[in-house]
């Protein structure tokens, strides 16, 4: 009972239930079993004061970037994220698990971050002055082996429902333990008067990164480059397609160049 409760609450995930042999052989009287597991599905409370401070940082940042992880999808917060992206125009980069958080055809989508990611995504984060990380554990493939060098010119705001992930690998300037959907609902209200024009030069710069370092190139001969194949595949896939990938180089080609709608 406890394993199911832990698996489904907070940040959902697998739980190892190790049953020793003596327990497996034990005689159990079913009529004597009683449940003593209380409801664990209580979301942490949002902190409006912290979100107000974060909204202020976003409003004054010259080179902000949003980093999304798998937590956005788990929290069913894609619509709230889309509202934020349209409202602010802030560039967005993604972890591998966060690639389905929004359409890759948005003008401010800047690719997959990390060791196996897009170069223009890494340049975007490296030159940012504010990183808003949503539902990502900031693992070593995103940050590199020396976390102190990750976005070292930027303030880091880390939002996650799992308290163990805040300051676990990279120290955040502001850490918020919160459901991503609840966080974005409040943040979008706080940014109702956001001025997009203040980051126009930053958007121009990130667009130049994408132009200068594309993930695929047009083939010159008969051979098709794998990344270009992923780009072509994007053009014919229905928008509601489900893409299943094994672990391997093809997973990285898809992460870099498969454009999701």
The helix-strand sequence is: HHHEHHEEHEHEEHHHH
Shape annotation? globular
Structural class: alpha/beta
Let me know the average pLDDT. 93
Write the topology of this structure:
Layout lengths: L1 H7 L12 H4 L23 H13 L3 E5 L2 H4 L3 H11 L3 E3 L14 E4 L6 H8 L3 E5 L5 H4 L11 E6 L13 E4 L2 H11 L9 H13 L13 H11 L12 H9 L4
Parallel strand pairs: 1-2, 1-4, 2-3, 4-5, 5-6
Helix pairs in contact: 3-8, 5-8, 6-9, 10-11
What does the model show?
- The protein has helices spanning 2-8, 21-24, 48-60, 71-74, 78-88, 119-126, 140-143, 180-190, 200-212, 226-236, 249-257; strands at residues 64-68, 92-94, 109-112, 130-134, 155-160, 174-177.
- It has 261 residues and is of the alpha/beta class.
- The protein has a 6-stranded parallel sheet, with helices on both faces.
- α3 (48-60) crosses α8 and α5 (78-88) runs parallel beside α8.
- The longest helix has 13 residues, at 48-60.
- It is globular.
What can be said about this structure in brief?
By secondary structure, this protein is an alpha/beta fold. Helix content is 36%, strand content 10%. The longest helix has 13 residues, at 48-60.
Keywords summarizing the entry:
alpha/beta; globular; single chain; 36% helix; 261 residues; 11 helices
């Amino acid at each position: 009972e406890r394993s199911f409760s832990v698996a489904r609450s907070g940040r959902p995930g697998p739980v190892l239930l190790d049953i020793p042999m003596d327990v497996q052989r034990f005689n159990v009287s079913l009529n004597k079993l009683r449940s003593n597991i209380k409801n664990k599905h209580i979301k942490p409370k949002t902190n409006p004061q912290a979100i107000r401070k974060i909204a202020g940082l976003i409003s004054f940042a010259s080179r902000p970037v949003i980093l999304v992880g798998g937590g956005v999808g788990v929290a069913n917060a894609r619509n709230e994220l889309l509202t934020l992206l349209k409202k602010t125009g802030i560039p967005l980069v993604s972890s591998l698990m966060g690639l389905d958080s929004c359409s890759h055809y948005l003008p401010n989508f800047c690719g997959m971050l990390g060791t196996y990611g897009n170069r223009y995504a890494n340049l975007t984060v490296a030159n940012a002055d504010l990183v808003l990380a949503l539902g990502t554990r900031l693992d070593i493939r995103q940050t590199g082996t020396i976390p102190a060098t990750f976005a070292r010119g930027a303030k880091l705001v880390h939002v996650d429902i799992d308290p163990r992930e805040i300051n676990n690998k990279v120290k955040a300037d502001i850490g918020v333990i919160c459901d991503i959907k609840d966080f974005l609902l409040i943040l979008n209200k706080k940014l109702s008067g956001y001025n997009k024009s203040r980051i126009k030069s930053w958007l121009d710069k990130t667009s130049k990164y994408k132009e200068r370092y594309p993930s695929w190139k047009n083939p010159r001969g008969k051979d098709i480059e794998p990344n270009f194949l992923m780009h072509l595949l994007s053009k014919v896939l229905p928008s509601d397609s489900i893409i299943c990938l094994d672990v391997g180089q093809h997973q990285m080609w898809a992460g870099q160049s498969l454009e999701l709608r």
